[in-house]
Design brief:
Elements lengths: L2 E9 L3 E10 L4 E5 L6 H8 L7 E6 L2 E2 L5 H7 E4 L11 H6 L14 H13 L15 H14 L4 E4 L8 H17 L3 E6 L2 H7 L2 E6 L2 E6 H7 L1 H4 L14 E3 L2 H14 L8 E5 L2 E5 L4 E4 L2 H11 L1
Parallel strand pairs: 3-8, 3-9, 6-7, 7-8, 11-12
Antiparallel strand pairs: 1-2, 1-4, 4-5, 9-10, 12-13, 13-14
Helix pairs in contact: 4-5
Keywords: ATP-binding, Nucleotide-binding, Transport
Pfam families: ABC_tran
Family: Belongs to the ABC transporter superfamily.
Length: about 300
């Protein structure tokens, strides 16, 4: 294991995560997930040795982080926090180039191959048109992408990102996550990123670290999701206590949208109904009635008639 957590108690004055044991290899993409305040950022800062462990050990490539210098940690881990200090008068190119200066004194000029790598990362993150734009003039989303670019340029074997997709729209979120996964698989990077959205794990991650009730649950994405109903059970979001869902036969996206519609609008037992998505139509049926609906608006009207 390239990154190991062994019997660690993590926190400040009190333990937020107890007796944590986990490990990740180079090439792994791992989602760190949990509610606000459970200790996700504290765990990240503990890996960086910015916060000392209350007990236990964290190892990077078999070396204890408490014995590593700040420079050695930077050579091993590139980090992007959700809130970063914006350097004044820096452009996108300036910021992304900063990732190289862990290898040089700051007064050195970058080599030609370094500048070419920075240009490639700017292009890959869809920031070419902002290359010479001051950071203070960027949108939140493009600013976040620039900080992620700096971490990629650092060329450390581990990249850790705290809520990296918070300010990103769907297009840029996908650009970032695809880039991170490609780095993991093609360049053998270890990627650990935190988020509130478990769906990101299903699409982009290999493993999950899930913080719940001061325990760190770890494993393959699909195993962890199925072991913890609250991560995938739509009833978690029910607005009506008496709502009982019908049987729904549909592709995942349509099924999720229908469930959302029904639980917002009906405080009833709908279990006698069957919904089937056929040829872009919804067919609603029970023992005595059958309706075909082309839209969710028509579904609402039909259910009003049924009930």
């Amino acid at each position: 294991m390239h990154l190991q957590i062994k019997r660690a108690n993590i926190g400040y004055n009190k333990t937020l995560i107890s007796n944590a044991n986990a490990g990740l290899n180079l090439g792994d993409v791992c989602l760190l997930i949990g509610n606000n305040g459970v200790g996700k950022t504290t765990l990240i800062k503990s890996i960086l040795h910015q916060i000392p462990l209350l007990n236990g050990d964290i190892l990077i490539n078999d070396k204890n982080v408490k014995n590593l210098s700040v420079k050695e940690i930077a050579e091993n881990i590139a980090i992007v926090f959700s809130k970063s200090v914006i350097p004044q008068h820096y452009t996108v190119e300036d910021l992304i180039s900063l990732g190289k200066y862990i290898y040089y004194p700051f007064y050195f000029e970058l080599k030609k191959e370094d500048r070419e790598e920075v240009a490639h990362i700017i292009d890959e993150l869809d920031l070419t048109q902002y290359r010479y734009t001051l950071l203070k003039n960027l949108s939140d989303g493009n600013l976040q992408k620039a900080f992620i670019g700096r971490a990629i340029t650092q060329n450390s074997p581990i990249i850790i990102l705290d809520e990296p997709t918070t300010h990103l729209d769907e297009k840029n979120k996908i650009i970032i996550l695809k880039t991170l996964r490609r780095l993991a698989k093609e360049q053998n990077k270890l990627i650990l990123f935190s988020s509130h959205d478990w769906r990101l794990a299903k699409e982009f991650a290999d493993k999950i670290w899930y913080v719940k009730n001061i325990q760190l649950h770890t494993g393959i994405v699909e195993d962890i999701l199925l072991q913890h109903d609250e991560l995938t059970n739509a009833s978690l979001f029910q607005m009506h206590e008496n709502f009982v869902p019908p049987h729904i036969s549909a592709p995942p996206v349509q099924k999720e949208m229908l469930y959302s519609l029904l639980q917002k609008n009906f405080s009833k037992d709908l279990s006698a109904l069957n919904f089937e998505f056929q040829n872009n139509f919804w067919v609603i049926s029970n023992d005595s009635t059958k309706y075909e609906c082309e839209s969710f608006e028509e579904i609402i009207k039909s259910l009003v008639n049924i009930y």
